[in-house]
């Protein structure tokens, strides 16, 4: 079994193969790996060089000319980009089963964002040529990748509409409901969002200033919908949070 040591990756444990297969049972169906048929997923993972990243490490950096993709087998990563004034904006969050770096692998242009590990990540790195060969053998896998890219574009478009059409409290409720649905961990009371976000990062996801998001968080706390701590948010009433976010029941 190969180990991947470029781009910040760590050596992998010898039982990588068995860990990889166990993890696959839990990949969401809507993720790229979770949506592939078992034979195609196994073939793609077979050509992936296994690697690990520690919290805070970059999987890839904005402006890099690398063209590989990274398959997230377990763990969570943040997608961010630089702003003109030197700050960073948090664009999205990716989790187990997702693929990152697909755009550079398709068009060969510099990376448009930085991907950073939120905690320990196990992953597989697929080089551009290997990915293209896989797509030539299995056009349906290429279509699935296209669907992933299209859904991300739709999500970005929806977010722009929300920024223009909804007040901050509604936008924040939508963001928190989405995070709770996709990254929530059940506890005695509600769900703990399994992504450690700073208030500036949360403000970036909600498309608002930090002080405005602080006021919206306070309002949601006072309504008994959530509790907050240092980089920790627990959702106590997801149904009500969805209502405030103008989301249909059961959808986040």
Mean pLDDT figure: 87
Which fold name corresponds to the CATH topology of the largest domain?
Jelly Rolls
Give the end-to-end Cα distance, rounded to a whole number of Å: 39 Å
Largest sheet: 4 strands, antiparallel
Shape descriptor reads globular
Strand content: 15-25%
Low-confidence stretches: 1-16
Structural class: alpha+beta
The CATH architecture of the largest domain can be given as Sandwich
User: Could you tell me the number of beta strands?
Assistant: 12
Q: How many domain units?
A: 2
What is the count of DSSP helices, taking H or I runs of 4+ residues?
10
Radius of gyration: 19 Å
The helix/strand order is: HHHEEEEEEHEEHHHEEHHEEH
Tell me the strand order in the biggest sheet.
1-8-3-6
Can you tell me the CATH class of the largest domain?
Mainly Beta
Please identify which CATH superfamily of the largest domain we are dealing with. Jelly Rolls
Roughly what percent helix? 40-55%
Domain Cyclic nucleotide-binding: 32-117
Domain HTH crp-type: 166-239
GO molecular function, one term: DNA-binding transcription factor activity
Region (Disordered): 1-32
Describe the structure in your own words.
This protein is of the alpha+beta class. It folds into two domains: 15-161, Jelly Rolls (Sandwich); 168-245, Orthogonal Bundle (Arc Repressor Mutant, subunit A). The protein contains ten helices and twelve strands. The strands form three sheets. A four-stranded antiparallel β-sheet has the order 1-8-3-6. A four-stranded antiparallel β-sheet has the order 2-7-4-5. Strands 9-10-12-11 form a four-stranded antiparallel β-sheet. Strand 4 (77-82) and strand 5 (88-94) form a beta hairpin. Helix 7 (168-183) packs antiparallel against helix 10. The longest helix has 27 residues, at 139-165. It is globular, with a radius of gyration of 19 Å. Residues 1-16 have low confidence and may be disordered. Pfam families: cNMP_binding, HTH_Crp_2. Residues 1-32 are annotated as: Disordered.
């Amino acid at each position: 079994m190969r180990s991947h040591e470029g781009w910040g990756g760590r050596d992998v444990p010898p039982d990588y193969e068995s860990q990889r297969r166990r993890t696959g049972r839990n990949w969401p169906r809507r993720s790229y790996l979770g949506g592939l048929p078992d034979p195609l997923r196994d073939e793609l993972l077979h050509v992936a060089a296994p690697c690990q990243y520690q919290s805070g490490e970059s999987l890839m950096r904005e402006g890099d000319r690398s063209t590989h993709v990274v398959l997230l087998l377990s763990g969570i990563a943040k997608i961010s980009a630089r702003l003109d004034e030197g700050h960073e904006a948090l664009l999205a969050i990716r989790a187990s089963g997702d693929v990152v770096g697909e755009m550079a692998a398709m068009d060969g242009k510099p990376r448009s964002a930085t991907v950073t590990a939120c905690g320990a990540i196990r992953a597989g790195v697929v080089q551009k040529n290997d990915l293209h060969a896989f797509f030539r053998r299995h056009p349906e896998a290429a279509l699935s990748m296209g669907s992933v890219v299209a859904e991300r574009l739709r999500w970005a478009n929806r977010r722009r509409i929300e920024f223009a059409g909804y007040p901050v409290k509604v936008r924040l409720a939508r963001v928190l409901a989405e995070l709770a649905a996709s990254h929530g961990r059940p506890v005695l009371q509600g769900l703990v969002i399994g992504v450690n976000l700073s208030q500036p990062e949360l403000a970036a996801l909600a498309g608002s200033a930090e002080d405005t998001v602080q006021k919206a968080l306070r309002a949601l706390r006072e309504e008994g919908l959530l509790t907050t701590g240092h980089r920790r948010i627990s959702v106590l009433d997801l149904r009500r949070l969805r209502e405030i976010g103008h989301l249909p029941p059961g959808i986040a």
